[in-house]
Specification:
Number of strands: 12
Order of helices and strands: HEHEEHEEEEHHHEEEEE
Bound molecules: biotin
Distance between the termini: 40 Å
Radius of gyration: 18 Å
Largest sheet: 7 strands, mixed
Length: 255
């Protein structure tokens, strides 16, 4: 297995905080678990846990995140935003993933609300945001990111729905270049004006204007995805003509 060349990543990094401390693991259960322990132990804003392989990688809604060794990027960032900015991470992180892929390849990924990164209609990258609070205070946030880089995506669990840079480009891409671009774009987006982030995120959302099925807390809703609001919630026009706003959920396009 080829290991990540962290010195090469560092040479490409132009951040002050994000990725300035990296804990690189050969294998782990989930980088979310390790990052949680580090955050609780006082790890600084921007600290990264990255693993070559995860044995219990997880996605949104408790799903499994297939995490074979040595091909992709699996990382979790420790972030320390103000409590009011937790939801903004659901825009900042997928936007940074799109921009990083755009910086390194000729691909132009899009976003399926709220934070799946797609190429065409297949998933290239996933984002998992978790917050840890005590009372009204946000202690820290964790931003988990999985990007399929040099994976042939032949695992039968995901073959029909996932893609990778390798599958899209027909050649391998430097994981170091993608990782450094991602950390750079994350820091830029983190400190960018809220409107810029919102506009950049919104302009990439393929869900808008589509008839969708949204599942939220075991209920399913069908309607037209009309827009997103300032907080990143999805505004759905239901068949009875009413509009309903959803903070979270799983969307399926009904094309
Ligand atoms: C999703 O699309 O459902 C989110 C996927 C998030 C996967 C990443 S891989 C690194 C980090 N560790 C995990 O166990 N999950 C996230």
């Amino acid at each position: 297995m080829t290991e990540l060349d962290l010195a090469a990543v560092e040479r490409l990094l132009r951040t002050e905080e994000i990725g300035r401390r990296i804990n690189y693991l050969a294998t782990t259960s989930s980088t979310m678990d390790i990052a949680r322990g580090e955050a609780a132990g006082g790890a600084p804003h921007g600290a990264v846990v990255i693993a070559e392989e995860q044995t219990a990688g997880r996605g949104r809604f408790g799903r499994r995140w297939v995490s074979p060794a040595g091909k992709n990027l699996y990382l979790t960032l420790v972030l320390r935003p103000a409590a009011g900015r937790l939801r903004a991470l659901s825009m900042i992180v997928p936007l940074a993933v799109c921009r990083a892929v755009e910086a390194v390849t000729r691909l132009r990924p899009v976003i399926k609300w709220p934070n799946d990164v797609l190429v065409g209609d297949r998933k290239l990258a996933g984002v998992l945001i978790e917050g840890e609070s005590s009372g009204s205070e946000l202690d820290y946030a964790l931003a988990g990111i999985g990007v399929n880089v040099n994976d042939p995506v032949d695992d039968e669990e995901i073959a029909g729905i996932a893609t990778s840079l390798l599958r899209e480009l027909g050649e391998e891409t430097s994981r170091e270049a993608v990782l450094a671009a991602l950390l750079n774009e994350l820091e830029d987006a983190y400190y960018a004006p809220t409107d810029d982030v919102h506009n950049g995120w919104r302009s990439r959302i393929v869900t808008l204007g589509q008839t969708v099925r949204l599942t939220f807390r075991d209920e399913a809703y069908e309607g037209t995805a009309e827009d997103v609001d300032d907080e990143g919630s999805l505004i759905l026009r239901l068949p009875d003509g009413t509009r309903r706003t959803f903070e979270a959920g799983e969307v399926t396009l009904r094309r």
